Amino acid sequence: MPAKKKRYKDLSSAGIDEKLPAIDWFRNFHKNYTITIVIPEYTSLCPRTGNPDFGTITIQYEPGERIIELKSLKEYIFAYRNLGIFYENAVNRILKDIVSSINPIWISVKGEFTPRGGIRSIVEAVWPPKK
Question: What is the pTM of this model?
Answer without folding.
Answer: 0.91
